[in-house]
Write a structure and sequence with these properties.
Blueprint: H1 2-10, H2 13-19, H3 30-45, H4 54-64, H5 71-86, H6 93-118, H7 126-140, H8 146-149, H9 156-163, H10 172-177, E1 186-191, H11 197-208, E2 218-222, H12 227-239, H13 243-248, H14 250-260, E3 265-267, H15 277-287, E4 291-295, H16 310-327, E5 331-336, H17 356-362, E6 365-370, E7 378-386, E8 402-408, E9 413-415
Parallel strand pairs: 1-5, 1-6, 2-3, 2-4, 4-5
Antiparallel strand pairs: 6-7, 7-8, 8-9
Helix pairs in contact: 1-3, 1-5, 1-6, 3-4, 6-7, 11-12, 16-17
Amino acid sequence: MHDVVLIKKLLDKTLYTRLVPYVKEHSVGKESWRIIQALAKYFRSYPDKDVVDLEEFKRFFFLLHTKDMKEASHTLYETIFKRIEEEDASSHVIEDVLKNYITKDYATAIVNKAMEILQDKEDASLEDVSNMVHKYNKEVGCAISDSDLFVAPDLSYLRRSLASPGLSWRLNELNVSIGPIRQGDFLVVAARPETGKTTFTCSEVSHFIPQIKDGRPIVWVNNEEASGKVMARLIQSFFGATIEELESDMEHYESVFRDMAGANIYITDDESGMNEVKKLTAKFDEHNPALIIFDQLDKVHGFNNRADREDIRIGMLYEWARELAKKYCPVIAISQADGSAEGAQWIEMNQLRGSKTDKIGEADAIITIGKTHDNEYTRYINIPKNKLVGGKGVKPELRHGKFEVTIQPEIARYVGTY
């Protein structure tokens, strides 16, 4: 019964993504497992499908197994699919189904650990079993201790934050106003088109790269310009070199950059099809990044099936990005300023385009870049929001500072006066 309910729910892609990590081969029947594996192939084959048509999936399933399926097995699967079709369990049973498979998964792990203890395996102890039971209770909500639920009355967060050196900026204006950025920090950078947002990002990322010493990469989700062009601009900024200088000895610059920074920077290919919440989440889990850049976050695909308005969808995107910051590393989202910011020096946070309330609310800090029509290379950095912890070099009077800086597009850098 549980398997039939489970498969019925897995026909919805959203529920599939939520439930399937908890479903293991040992916790379902072999026929159910075969169907679930076929569902995985189905969703990979038809990535735009949000809800599976059961008749269509049946044809897909039997086509996969035509060669190795006997007539008796075919009849058995037809019976299973009929039961799935007739199943009308209400949505509230989802939690019960999920709990069932989590329980089986933990039970198997506990049995395996108990066998290791009986066999006198090194480092195996009953304490491991106790920890598994505790994790199980937390996961299914059976028992949550006060220490899991409530924050301790101490300064541990501040202590941890200040103990981490974080990533310092190339522009010292940002070092004295915002300070270093650390895990948990979510920043939004906004400007009008053709202001130099990509140049600003290259200038800062090329400065962040050598500061990362633990081998974790910077992941730059690019959906604004051609990815090869962005990588070229980043290399240009890294060396502070003009295009003519790079052209004079491209093999040398490529080789040095690979040796010094190549393993630390991943820029998504704009033709890879990776610009989607679920795919990106899986990659972040795989690579555990030290910094995430979204250029631009508004253009990431996701949550379309949960929001009928674009501003609500964008709000969900920014909430997702904030959770990424908590889980992995600092996150910087590049965004657009609206038309009212055209030609303005000091852009305020209410001039962000799109879901202004959610963007402003989710961000720990907002950096805006203004540009007037009569100063081609002058840019105006404004910090209208700043809730970051800061650091030793931060000047309290500049936490919401306004700074004139210079863009040097010929070397893909911003230069300040501090």
